[in-house]
Design goal:
Elements lengths: L1 H16 L28 E4 L4 E4 L9 E6 L2 E6 L13 E6 L3 E9 L10 E3 L6 E2 L5 E4 L14 E8 L4 E4 L6 H11 L5 E8 L5 E7 L6 E7 L6 H14 L4 H9 L1 E5 L4 H5 L22 H17 L2 E11 L3 E5 L10 H12 L7 E4 L8 H9 L2 E8 L4 H21 L2
Parallel strand pairs: 4-6, 14-15, 14-16, 16-19, 17-18
Antiparallel strand pairs: 1-2, 2-5, 3-4, 5-11, 6-10, 7-8, 7-11, 9-10, 12-13, 13-15, 17-19
Helix pairs in contact: 3-9, 4-9, 7-9
The chain binds zinc ion.
The site of zinc ion has 3 residues, from loops.
Length: 421
C-alpha cells in the first residue's frame, strides 16, 4: 500500500516539474525583394459529383480549394495549393460541401510537393459560428515528431464529414473575411469616440480602413495593425479583444482616451484574406518584408497615414503593435538597449500582464537587429521611435484564453501608459 502512495507521489511530482516544451521562435528574417510577382488565380465554382449527389464549392470570399477527385465510393481527395512560391507552410483551406441526401463522406486534404497540413479543421453551418472538428472524425498521416514548426505537421489528413442538403462549411480557421471585418469596424464606429476612414486601396482595390479611437487632434498616439498574413485569425481575434477593451466603458479606458488616441488597421491584407491566400498580398509579396521599400500599396498606405498623423497633430506615436499567429504564443519584442519614445514600456507591460494572469508565463523573444527595418515592428521603432512588438498567438491557442489575454493586455497597457505621463 505504502509503495502505491509513493508511486502516486512520484507521478504527481513528475507532473509538476515536467516542463512543456517552449517555442524558441522563428529563424532570423531574410531580406527579400518586395517587387510584385505574379500570383495564381484560383478557379472558382462548384465541383459536382452528380452520380453521388455530392457537391463542393469554393465560390465565396476566403475560400481555397484547388482541385478534387473521387477515389472510390464516398471517398474524395482535395488538393490545396498556394498563390505563388516560395512560401512558408501556412496552407489555408476553406470550402463548402453538401449532398442531396444525408450521408457520410471521407475527404483527404493534400498539399503540393514540399507542403504539409497545418490547421485543425473548423466546421460551421452558417459561416459565422464555428466548432473544431471532433477528433474521432480526423486522422493524420506521416506526422512529424517535432514540437513546433513544419517538422511537427502531418503530410496529409483525412476527415469524415456528415453532410446533407444544408451547407457545411469546412475551414482552416474561423472565417474572418473583409466582410466580417467591415461589420466589426462599423459596429465599433457607432460609439461616439470611434470613427473610421479609408486610408488607401489594396492592390485589387479593396478599401484599407483605419479606426480612430479617441480624438483626432491628440498628439499622443498608438498604432495597432493585424492580418498582414491571411490565415492568422487567432492574432486577429486577440487584436479584437485588445481594441474592444480600449473602446470599452471601463473608467480606465475613458481616462486613457482623454490622453491617447489609438489608430487601428485591423485588416492589412484584404486581398489575401478574401482570395484565401496562404501568406502574400495580391502582388504576390509577404507584406511584412516591405516596410523599408514600400513597393506594395498596403504597407505604403499605413506608413503615409502614420506620417500624416504625426504632422497633423504635431505629435508622436508611443506604441506600435502588430498581431500575428504562429506555432505557439510568443512576443517578439525589441532589446532593452533600444530606447524609443517611452523607454522600457514593453518589458514592464509584459511583466504586468504576467502578474495579472495567474499561472501565465509569457514567452518573450527580444531582437537586437533593427535594420534593415523590413518588418512592421522595426519600421515602427526605427522611423517613428515607437515602443513596438509583434504579438503572436498560437494557431491552436484556446479562444477564450486569447480573448482574456487581449483584454488583460489592453488594461495593463492603459494603466502603464497613463502612469508614465
Ligand atoms: Zn504573421
Amino acid at each position: 500500500m505504502k509503495n502505491i502512495f509513493l508511486l502516486f507521489a512520484f507521478i504527481i511530482t513528475l507532473n509538476i516539474y515536467s516542463q512543456k516544451p517552449v517555442f524558441k521562435g522563428q529563424e532570423p528574417i531574410e531580406q527579400v525583394s518586395t517587387v510584385s510577382k505574379p500570383v495564381q488565380i484560383q478557379w472558382k465554382g462548384i465541383f459536382p459529383f452528380e452520380n453521388d449527389s455530392v457537391y463542393f464549392s469554393n465560390d465565396f470570399e476566403g475560400a481555397r480549394l484547388n482541385g478534387i477527385i473521387k477515389d472510390y465510393d464516398s471517398t474524395y481527395t482535395a488538393l490545396i495549393t498556394s498563390e505563388n512560391t516560395p512560401i512558408n507552410v501556412s496552407p489555408w483551406y476553406a470550402f463548402k460541401v453538401w449532398s442531396k441526401h444525408k450521408k457520410q463522406i471521407y475527404l483527404t486534404l493534400t498539399y503540393g510537393e514540399g507542403y504539409k497540413h497545418r490547421y485543425y479543421p473548423k466546421l460551421s453551418n452558417d459561416g459565422l459560428h464555428w466548432t473544431s472538428m471532433d477528433s474521432t472524425d480526423y486522422v493524420e498521416f506521416e506526422k512529424g515528431d517535432k514540437n513546433f514548426g513544419p517538422g511537427s505537421l502531418p503530410l496529409k489528413v483525412q476527415m469524415k464529414l456528415s453532410i446533407n442538403p444544408d451547407t457545411l462549411w469546412v475551414s482552416a480557421q474561423e472565417l474572418q473575411t473583409s466582410k466580417h471585418v467591415k461589420k466589426w469596424v462599423e459596429a465599433l464606429s457607432e460609439k461616439p469616440f470611434v470613427s473610421n476612414q479609408q486610408i488607401g486601396l489594396s492592390r485589387e482595390g479593396r478599401p484599407l480602413t483605419a479606426l480612430t479611437i479617441g480624438k483626432e487632434k491628440t498628439a499622443r498616439m498608438l498604432i495597432v495593425i493585424s492580418r498582414q498574413h491571411p490565415p492568422e485569425v487567432t492574432g486577429y481575434l486577440a487584436m479584437k479583444a485588445f481594441v474592444e477593451t480600449i473602446s470599452s466603458n471601463l473608467k480606465l479606458a475613458k481616462k486613457f482616451r482623454k490622453k491617447f488616441t489609438v489608430y487601428v488597421v485591423p485588416l492589412m491584407n484584404p486581398d489575401g484574406v478574401d482570395n484565401g491566400y496562404w501568406r502574400h498580398n495580391a502582388g504576390g509579396i509577404d507584406l511584412n518584408r516591405d516596410w523599408t521599400f514600400f513597393n506594395q500599396p498596403e504597407t505604403l498606405a499605413v506608413s503615409e497615414f502614420i506620417k500624416e498623423r504625426e504632422k497633423k497633430t504635431n505629435g508622436k506615436f508611443y506604441f506600435g503593435i502588430d498581431f500575428h499567429s504562429t506555432w505557439d504564443d510568443i512576443y517578439y519584442t525589441i532589446a532593452d538597449s533600444f530606447k524609443g519614445n517611452m523607454p522600457g514600456l514593453v518589458p514592464e507591460w509584459l511583466e504586468n500582464v504576467k502578474m495579472a494572469i495567474p499561472g501565465y508565463n509569457p514567452n518573450i523573444s527580444p531582437s537586437d537587429k533593427m535594420e534593415p527595418a523590413i518588418i512592421s515592428r522595426n519600421y515602427f521603432y526605427v522611423s517613428h521611435g515607437m515602443e513596438a512588438l509583434v504579438f503572436e498567438v498560437g494557431d491552436n491557442t484556446n479562444r477564450d484564453f486569447l480573448k482574456k489575454k487581449g483584454q488583460t493586455s489592453a488594461i495593463e497597457l492603459m494603466k502603464l501608459m497613463l502612469s508614465r505621463l
